Amino acid sequence: MTPTIPYGGDYNPEQWPEQVGEEDHRLFTEARIDTLTVGVFSWSLTQPAPGAYDFTVLDRVLDRAVPQGRRVCLATGTAALPPWLAKKHPEVNRTDFEGRRHRYGQRHNFCPSAPAYRDHAAALAERLAARYAGHPALLAWHVNNEYGGACYCGLCADAFRAWLRDRYATLDALNDAWCTAFWSHRYTDWDQIEPPNALTEHWRGPDHTAFQGTTLDYFRFTTDALLGCFRAEKEAIRRHDGATPVTTNFMGAYRPLDYHRWAPHLDFASWDSYPPLDAPPTRPALAHDLMRGLKDGAPFWLMEQTPSTTACRDVNPLRRPGELRLATFQAIAHGADAALYFQLRASRGACEKYHGAVIGHAGRDDTRVFREVAALGRELEALGDATLGARTPSRTALLFDWDSWWALEISDGPSRLVRYQDVVHAYYRAARTAGADVDVVPVTADLTPYDVVLAPVLHMVKGDLAARLEAVAARGGTVLATFLSGRVDLCDRAFLTDVPGPLAPLTGVRVDEWDARPPEVVQPVRLGESVFEARLVFEIVLPRGAEPVAVYGADFYAGTPAVTRNTYGAGEGWYVATALDQPGVDAVVRRVLARHGLVGPYAGHPAVESATRVAPDGTRLLFLLNHAPGPARLTAHAAGTDLLTGRRVEAHVPLTLDPLGVVVLRVQ
């Protein structure tokens, strides 16, 4: 446990002359920076040739950090190959989706199945651990960096076949799972199986596949292959350091990798937050809550964010004054126990030289960005350990499932225009703007703590999930499912029953037909006295015990249910049969939350975000964040002390939040 929120970020002194280091540390002290992430892309520096190691730069950084009172998150540096390894072992270079073997270049350029990569990466991690385990500056281990991408080489084909043998045991089981009776695909030998790519099962890109079960399994295999690389490095570290926590930095709601499969192997979750600056604040909030949900609600690290602007996009807008502070406190409100930047000093060259940095190329301490970073550092220093270890007491859960995401977006129907993240965000946004704290959890999570479970586009229903959702409703809770839910099993095979498959008893509906239309086709949906818009998919619902809550207003199915509610035990199962606009989703979700008293006191202020954390000693912390450029005038619903100003706030009296302002109340 650190005495304050770790504050700092990626530091790459190898990109600058050695004498710059002293000035860096002066500026770090001025900005209250106490944590340095070091060595993220240092493989060619620390191992310039096979069997040759040079720890000069790392030694200098770690040894200098100690007298300055700083700690180091030490990276293994294995995210990008050194040129010598690619030249000596060309098989470590990836083969892309189109079947092209790449030559050396870029980053994330390694084949996860190549023994040469795994062996050299684990050996480097072990050398680092042997050297720095027990170093007084060492705070955490940072393995690799932003794992991602896929390889389709012969080594991956062999590894995929071995993965399939382990999963299915027999070819009969695999043929059944993949429905290979279709198009004469029945396999009679494991060696006949090819990775699904542009040369085999795909056309028009990665999401257009003839055999969804095959592609779905390759997504799962890729997740496990990259996870195997992480685990090998962690095991190498653990041979010398059994105590220092080990993590790798994720990328929020990142489709290629199922982070739920990684979560048990991390000592704490961490992620890099780079939302489009014009995105609604619920977009990064959803990712924060997803990261918190990876470790059963334990705090996570904000491993990277930009202090000003990003790079490598076509257009890179600048954070306006106050937006950095607001984004940082939003992360803390949702469970962050560290606030780190990419990067501390700007890169001198290459593709990230214009990426935002605390210290620019001129090394000045009088820029707006540096002043904002330093002011925030002083606030976090004054906040101390008040938020460290605090958890979120949510009574609302949102199910997030990578298998459903993959299966939905590689399906050939009903609509390729439905995007999993967009629908999930719409329901998350509705709950958050209504004032509910939300846990974003896997489908395997324990659901007993929750009164409300939101399950948007739960395309795939696995294991005992349907029974556990029924149990939530039976004891008095509410479960909400949506269109395109309950369609397929674990292998992406359609359920041989009425839609929504295993969710039908809970929802009390049957869906025989569905109408998919282009986005310009708008169907009115009437809910009470209000009319909302729906697009993309219109399921035609036959109630089987459920009652209509909203109805379609046009076409031959006008007057049929678009939203239903079914009494189940002491609770309810809701079904939303179409892609409602955001006001429509808001209206439905607020009715669900209101049944359980979960609509918050600030729900009438759409720009005001509230979040709650409870410290290990039971102290309740209420975060109020104003995302508007103007002041927000509220009535405080609870008494407490603002930890950022020391100001006393009384219940039921006016409370004004500054533009982009933050209040952190220790509630009494």
Automatic annotation (TrEMBL):
Keywords: Glycosidase, Hydrolase. Residues 395-598 form the Beta-galactosidase trimerisation domain. It holds the Pfam family Glyco_hydro_42M. Residues 10-382 form the Glycoside hydrolase family 42 N-terminal domain. Its EC number is 3.2.1.23. Residues 611-666 form the Beta-galactosidase C-terminal domain. It catalyses: Hydrolysis of terminal non-reducing beta-D-galactose residues in beta-D-galactosides. Belongs to the glycosyl hydrolase 42 family. This is Beta-galactosidase.
